[in-house]
Amino acid sequence: MSAGVGQRSQPDQPDDGLDEAEVPAGPPAAPNGGRTAARLPAAGQAAGGARWMMAGLPAEKSIQFLPSAKRLLRRLRPYRNQLVAVIALAVASVTLAVIGPRILGRATDIIFAGVLGRGIPPDQTLDQAVAQLRASGNDNMADLLARMHAVPGMGVDFSALARVLLLALVVYVVSSAFAWLQGYLLNNVVQSAIMGLRAEVEDKLNRLPLPYFDRQPRGEVLSRVTNDIDNVAQSLQQTLSQLLSSLLTVVGVLLMMFLISPLLAVIALVAVPLSVVVTQQIAKRSQKMFVAQWTHTGALNAQIEEAYTGHELVKVFGRQREVEAAFAAKNEELFKASFGAQFISGIIMPSMMFIGNLSYVAIAVVGGLRVASGTMSLGDVQAFIQYSRQFTQPLTQVASMANLLQSGVASAERVFDLLDAEEETADPVSPVRVAEPRGRVEFSHVSFRYQPEQPLIDDLSLVAEPGHTIAIVGPTGAGKTTLVNLIMRFYELDAGRITLDGVDITTMRRDALRGAIGMVLQDTWLFGGTIRDNIAYGNPDATEEQIHTAAEATFVDRFVRSLPDGYDTMIDEEGSNVSAGEKQLITIARAFLSDPALLILDEATSSVDTRTEVLLQRAMAALRSDRTSFVIAHRLSTIRDADLILVMEDGRIVEQGRHDELLAAEGAYHRLYHAQFSQAVVEIDEVSDGAPALAGVRP
Amino acid sequence: MLIRVLRTYLRPYPRPLAAVVILTLIGTMASLYLPSLNADIIDRGIARGDTGYIVRTGGWMLLVTAVQITCSIIAVYYGARTAMAFGRDLRAALFRRVGQFSAREVGRFGAPSLITRNTNDVQQVQMLVVMTCTMLVSAPIMMVGGVIMALREDPGLSWLMLVCVPVLVIAIGLIIRRMVPGFRLMQTRIDAVNRVLREQITGVRVVRAFVREPQETARFGAANADLTATALRVGRLMTLIFPTVMLVLNASGVAVLWFGAHRVDAGQIEIGALTAFLNYLLQILMSVMMATFMLIMVPRAAVSSERIVEVLDTECSVVPPAEPVREVRGRGDLELRDVSFQYPGAAAPVLRGISFRAEAGRTTAIIGSTGAGKTTLMSLVPRLFDTTGGTVLVDGIDVREMDPDLLWSRIGLVPQRPYLFTGTVASNLRYGNPDATDDELWEALEIAQGRDFVEAMPDGLDSPIAQGGTNVSGGQRQRIAIARALVRQPEIYLFDDSFSALDLGTDARLRAALRPVTADAAVVIVAQRVSTIVDADQIVVLDDGEVVGIGRHDELLDTCETYREIVESQLTVGVAA
Question: For B310-329, how does the pLDDT look when each residue is reduced to its tens digit (9 = 90+)?
């Protein structure tokens, strides 16, 4: 579908849907028997987890991870100061958050001490109480009590508790405030950087030479400027903010755990490799399942697409039942695959929870024993349990971000490739201006090739006088379209020169040159907007009246009137209300309205029915009357009145002249002409005698 | 809408759903029991220095953990299974519904939109069900359980829950309520930016030819600025969530310790119970938060389910008759009586007062300019649309009263866009007649002038065909589509501009070969080229939705101005030669 707007064939690209769908977008660790405020995923993190878990989609690998990652980070250099602030704030916030449980642990100790103190008669000293316990054989209790700062007979020391809790509250408030400020700044940085990247890509697109767009499939370029940039934006935002705080948290928590109790820290650390191994094992299996799920999803979607696109055939050929049966079979396969994927990946969470609980039990038991033996305080155990909860979560997050980062950098690399692509030569510093272009075009010894080893146009010379109509005919691949593209300076010559009114076009500004030319392309590209806007594309200042005049002259008006919304009808990606032929008419109206000095019509009427075409020919004849025109046409009937017909074969002009002269010469044009018409004529001669009579009804 | 979809399509699975709830209940209870055991360790083990008790209780905790993981995994099993079955059933229901649609409903939604609804939208809703079944279901259980356990530890502190939970809910709710529209707006903005870029790339020549780079850059700049502004706003809200949640959770912890200390000091609770209470409160808050986050998905799923229900609720404009005519005696005479057709919402009808007969054994050609209504006219015969006025009769019977299968079995349609299905040449040819032999296929190909190129393919009839037939040329696709109709051996042939991609010689040979095979059938040909239809038994000239002439080529040349114009436009040069 060359016509129309954008990629219609793939509606609602599933990239967004697929990323999020079908995957438990939850944090790897979840509410469980957990005691404390384990770090919780913000909404954005959930998506990160999803990406990681659905690693079933072949992860894009970048070719040069480090250089590209560095280059991506270099783009943040203008925001150096903010970034330094971000890091400082993150360090501060995480440090405070990590200290928090320790302070709360002290609060627990104060309460515990109060409980124990109350149990000792006021007239006894602490030492006496301990000695008494030992005497009664209760060594454990004695050790415990010996370590506590219990005051006999006194209950909980509320003023001390208030101080400690107030401190904790302040620490938490400040930590949260810093975390918020850090996120706020980082958000600004990332969004500005991405906006800059987008703008740069846009500028680049305008400077890329056309061969760049020819060389690669459109979808490829499209995907770079849309999907890849989106991906970079997402991964940058998610990884930068979380990677930093997650890493800091891991380090901080580890430090605190060793500080409290090296023994318990080692026990807690055992859980790490265990969870990594378990996650890996499950992920490995679920990846396969996810691949199967995506494959089946793709297959089913293809089947649905086919059934809906060929809907009328399915009906008329009575295939409804077969189609439904085939659908049901595929649907069932998808069900099985996605169920498997969902189940296996769904096991990760309970498993992590299980390991977390095991470690919790171990810490509770060992910690309990150590408190009982007086080597640790109860508050320390409680703090430790909190830390161990905080520990696994950021770790899994860092792991999950590795993939996200990979894919983000791979996307960035593809964007950078585009930014690095060679640009077209700059416009001359002091361009020559053609004040009132008359439209004399001259090619002198022009050579051009798309690929070095394949000459396309070789030493071609021609002159188009002002006001003349030049028709170009020849078989497919003869270089007709290339020839007119050279006039537009879409491509640079390999040799020779093209002049407009005596001025070499390479010494002109491109926009000045192109502004003087109106072009109707084979490709009936319209942009997403109303029919009115599309007609006015080449002349945004056109009045309503001018638009209507152009539309009437090009027969656009006729069908637009039958549309419910008339000129306000949107040409959109699903716009099946406008046929290919009608689109072509709109492109002609567009050129008509731009009122150029030079007109190029490249197969301008190929999708229009012949009767409309004849009418259009007349309209275009009026349009051409005082303009130089280049006309490319397959239907030779449309060009017989041309002032000059160029017959091209293999990039050369093999014949030129007027219609009658060329026919008389019995050369290439003659052959071409007969190939197109003789059969039709013979056929008609056989069937009816009407044909000869037609000569008389010529207009 | 969402509720309706869920209720309807989850109804068949009461048992698995009950299993999910019960297992989650047990699993959650087990989870909730752990802090209580931990409290026992503190109060009866540590506080009394009873190490044996600590170890024994540790063993209990392990057992409880084992119960918990077992229940969780089985619950995930049933949850995933039910959610996926839900998706499967919903997809199937949509597919069945669309299968009943006429071209009119398909046209109303557009095939791409229907595809999206059948795939992506179902996925969105299914996603919600998955999350609900595997995660969300535990949130309320955890909450209720947490509350019960916390009350058991100390009813005196329960008022703290009444403060903390609403604070958290309101805090998150306020942020999310502003975030959800923000997300939606952001998606729109991303789409806008991508649309501009896409247009610039696909239309690069036009943009440059009309020197529109400055305007396009400005257009892009505006879209980019819009997107960034929205992204900043949404981003700021998002950065607010995490610190807020942390603050509420941590402050709750501080509050519990402070107020709990008083109760401990007064001897109303033990210190272990205090720790347990703290854990339960945090657990409740966590599950509240999880539930709130999951609810973000609801609006999106709601939009999707609206789009789904819209399709499911669409009545088909072409309904099979209640008492269909199942037997028809006749040779396949087609007649249109005063037929008119208007697209819903269109200002003017596409067809007006069309009447003609296409008898068996005769060839009827329809010619007219672009947009004259030729394809619409063809679609009325197999009831892809129903007329909005007048009747279409086959062998004297209104097509609306005929059994659709019977009607379709008599028609061989070659559509304007010769769509081929994924498979092989043979599978496509057998599309309308699965029992056809290879010989019959070759015969049809021979008539359709397709034998040569199919023979030249490496695997002959078994050569693969890509979706839509994109791996063969337009002309080849057309010939396969013609052969496909021939294999059916129908009584009425409808060729909708089916010879356009063929060169004139092939066109002529094809039509010559067709003549004997279609001798007894009614043949209707829509064409652009006069040469294709010049030998038709009758030519119907359409202009602007009306018949302006019927007759043979030479008659029309004399009587029909429009026809003469069409012929002239194509033959002038040829005749001049």
Answer: 999 988 888 888 888 888 77
Longest dimension (CA), chain B: 118
Backbone angles phi, psi at B463, to 5 degrees: -65, 140
Same domain, A142 and A261: yes
Q: Would residue B273 count as lying in a domain?
A: no
What CA–CA distance (Å, rounded) separates A286 from A253?
A: 31
Q: Residue A372: which of B34, B45, B206 has the nearest Cβ?
A: B45
Q: From the CA atom positions of chain A, what is the Rg in Å?
A: 39
The phi and psi torsions of B355 (rounded to 5 degrees) equal -135, 130
CA proximity to B512, closest of B418, B446, B416: B446
Distance CA B504, CA A253 (A): 81
- Give A-chain residues touching B567 at CB under 8 angstroms: 694
Cα–Cα distance, A583 to A585 (Å, whole number) = 5
One domain for residues B21 and B161: no
Longest CA pairwise span in chain A (Å): 136
SS3 A424: coil
Q: Per-residue pLDDT for A21 more than 60?
A: no
- Amino acid at the residue A604: A
Do A84 and A156 fall within a single domain? yes
Domain that holds residue B444: 334-576
Contact of A425 with chain B, judged by CB distance below 8 Å, is answered with no
In angstroms, rounded to a whole number, what is the distance separating the alpha carbons of residues A573 and A8? 5
| Residue A392 confidence class, pLDDT cut points 50, 70, 90 | low
Q: Are residues B382 and B527 in the same domain?
A: yes
B136: left (phi over 0), alpha (psi -120 to 50) or beta: alpha
Among A residues 313-332, those touching chain B with beta carbons less than 8 Å apart: 313-320, 322-324, 327-328, 331-332
Tokens matching residue B316: 């088909």
The rounded distance, in Å, linking the Cα atoms of B38 and B34 is 6
B119-151 tens-digit pLDDT = 888 988 998 898 888 777 888 888 888 888 888
Query: Which residue would you say has higher pLDDT here, A64 or A270?
Result: A270
Distance from C-alpha of B153 to C-alpha of B150, rounded to nearest angstrom: 5
Contacts of B286 in chain A (CB under 8 A): 31, 34, 37-38, 40
- Give the mean pLDDT of B437-459: 90
Higher-confidence residue of B549 and A684: namely B549
Looking up residue B56, the CATH number of its domain turns out to be 1.20.1560.10
Cα A601-A602-A603 angle, rounded to 5 deg: 110
Q: Considering its fold, how many domains does chain B have in total?
A: 3
CB contact under 8 A, A312 and B225: no
Q: Which residues are CB-neighbours of B532 under 8 A, at least 6 positions away? A: B365, B499, B507, B511, B525
If asked whether residues A210 and A91 sit together in one domain, one would say yes
pTM over 0.80: no
Q: What is the ipTM of this complex?
A: 0.81
- For residue A174, what pLDDT is reported? 96
Q: In this structure, are residues B46 and A140 in contact, taking their beta carbons and an 8 Å threshold?
A: no
pLDDT digits (tens, 9 = 90+) for B332-376: 889 999 999 887 766 678 888 999 999 888 899 998 876 678 888
Instruction: Indicate if B210 and B132 belong to the same structural domain.
Output: no
Q: Residues, chain A, total?
A: 699
Pick from B475, B383, B379, B459: nearest CA to B427? B459
Chain A positions touching B411 (Cβ under 8 A) are 316
Q: Residue A264 has which token pair?
A: 């318990």
Number of domains in chain A: 2
Range(s) of the domain holding residue A186: 62-420
The CATH number of the domain holding residue A368 is 1.20.1560.10
| Residue A442, beta-bridge partner list | A463, A499
